[in-house]
Design brief:
Bound molecules: adenosine-5'-triphosphate, magnesium ion
Strand order of the largest sheet: 1-5-6-4-3-2
Number of domains: 3
CATH architecture of the largest domain: Orthogonal Bundle
Number of strands: 12
Order of helices and strands: HHEHEEEHEEHHEEEHHHHEEHHHHHHE
Radius of gyration: 36 Å
Structural class: alpha+beta
Length: 450
């Protein structure tokens, strides 16, 4: 606009000057006055041309610099967003975008006690799993954001990558993860009836062993190699995902605080089905990385046997006739009798190709991990060494497996009674001298400084 105005003024000035020269030639003829006017006119015309040339040149340079700045800015932005991704800085998504990505939260992937997971596709084509947290709004936004940032900064090939989050006022909190195509391990080790309507099958022995190593590496990283130690506190097959090559990707680490998984949830979990929780945790003696190792051992046994460690067996109609079956106890007995192959999942045995030495190693490691005395359990780093055959694995010692008694407490007994019974067991169990530096209470952040 500025340029156009200047050009119009310049052309008008030049035309006016030419007219003035012509008029003065006619009126003044070749007089002295005419030559004066003509000289001044030509000088002004030349000045106008010089001004236009300089201005044009200057404008060109300015435009060139501007476009260079824009492209540099674009490059910087691309580089910055790449660095953000690499450094694991989580993106803040708008609720509307995630609603569109998940087709209005229609494509359900799975549901847990504290969250629902949906599949989504972002605008750039990235497949994501959007986790909608139930009752997550109670936490302050700042606290939520800092926990999310801490989780996203923890990166390992065997840990699921947190891409971003969404916390709009009045809306449920959302976490956005990379989508892991083959779902969770439970669908690949337990019989189909348990995981109906979900993608799954029977994982081969070779894959199970590899998954065991992958998960051990992920936990070892969380426990030993992170800047801040991270306790997972929810190691179970549902939280171990399988990628397109059936490699394990551990999910839900560090979520306890976001989900508000408190003591009551712990008790709910044990009374529900599970049995992945270490005795010291059930007895409220504090948790440490050793509690994760216990849960890991439990998952190993379930992978070997293709069945839940704790299940109610017996007549479906008569509840009184039902009793708890505790698979780790069976494995322990079979190991002492030298009949280790009998504990392996029948479907896997039928597939053949099982190395008995690997079975022994896996069973031994699992039984070491579920020792009730926390100090006897190996560290995750040592577990990796044992599974990879770099360290010999001794036969694990006897353990009372008192957890069965905890589980057999009648579910209908009032809570007070339940708690009294648990408290009565405490002295017979576990070493109360858990390393105090690594022990933490339920209330602490999962991400604790070393
Ligand atoms: N990133 C992901 N990619 C693909 N599937 C996922 C992903 N995250 C979770 N899932 C699926 O969603 C299911 C539900 O996950 P969620 O964490 O909500 O529940 P859970 O782990 O089963 O139990 P809880 O959260 O109550 O401890 C998982 O079991 C898994 O099958
Ligand atoms: Mg989960």
């Amino acid at each position: 606009m500025e340029d156009k105005k200047a050009n119009i003024v310049a052309v008008t000035t030049v035309v006016a000057l030419i007219i003035l020269i012509i008029v003065s030639r006619v009126v003044l003829e070749l007089s002295k006055a005419f030559f004066l006017i003509c000289g001044a006119g030509v000088a002004v015309i030349l000045a106008v041309f010089a001004y236009l040339i300089i201005r044009r040149h200057y404008n060109r340079r300015r435009m060139l610099m501007e476009s260079r700045l824009v492209s540099e800015g674009r490059e910087l932005r691309t580089e910055y967003s790449f660095l953000r991704k690499v450094a694991g800085v989580p993106t803040k998504f708008r609720h509307k975008d995630l609603e569109e990505a998940t087709d209005h939260f229609r494509s359900l992937v799975g549901q847990g006690a504290s969250a629902t997971v949906f599949k989504g596709i972002l605008n750039d084509g990235t497949a994501v799993a959007v986790k909608r947290i139930n009752n997550g709004e109670e936490r302050g936004e700042k606290e939520f954001r800092s926990e999310v940032a801490a989780i996203a900064s923890v990166q390992h090939v065997n840990l699921v990558h947190l891409l971003g989050y969404c916390c709009s006022p009045g809306m449920p909190r959302l976490l956005v993860y990379e989508f892991i195509p083959n779902g969770s391990l439970d669908c690949w080790i337990f019989p189909r009836r348990e995981t109906q309507n979900r993608r799954g099958g029977c994982l081969s022995w070779e894959s199970r062993y590899r998954v065991a190593v992958d998960v051990a590496k992920a936990l070892s990283y969380l426990h030993h190699d992170c800047r801040s130690r991270v306790l997972h506190l929810d190691v179970k097959p549902e939280n171990i995902l399988l990628d397109e090559n059936y490699r394990a990707i551990v999910a839900d680490f560090g979520l306890s605080k976001l989900m508000g998984k408190d003591q009551s949830r712990v008790l709910t979990t044990i009374r529900g089905t599970k049995g992945y929780l270490a005795p010291e945790w059930l007895l409220e003696q504090g948790v440490s990385e050793k509690s994760d190792i216990y849960s890991y051992g439990m998952v190993l046994l379930e992978m070997i046997g293709g069945q839940r460690n704790v299940c109610l067996i017996g007549n479906d109609e008569n509840r009184a006739e039902k009793k708890w079956q505790y698979y780790p106890k069976i494995v322990n007995e079979k190991m002492r009798q030298g009949k280790l192959m009998e504990v392996v999942d029948q479907r896997v045995l039928e597939g053949g190709g099982i190395d008995e030495k690997e079975v022994r190693r896996l069973v031994y490691v699992a039984l070491w991990c579920i020792q009730e005395k926390a100090r006897l359990r190996p560290t995750m780093a040592r577990v990796v060494e044992m599974l990879e055959g770099r360290t010999a694995v001794d036969e694990p010692p006897e353990t009372r497996m008192i957890i069965v008694d905890l589980l057999s407490i009648d579910e209908d007994t009032p809570d007070g009674h339940h708690r009294r019974k648990i408290a009565a067991m405490a002295p017979h169990l576990v070493d109360s001298n858990l390393p105090s530096t690594s022990t933490c209470s339920f209330a602490m952040s999962i991400i604790s400084p070393r």
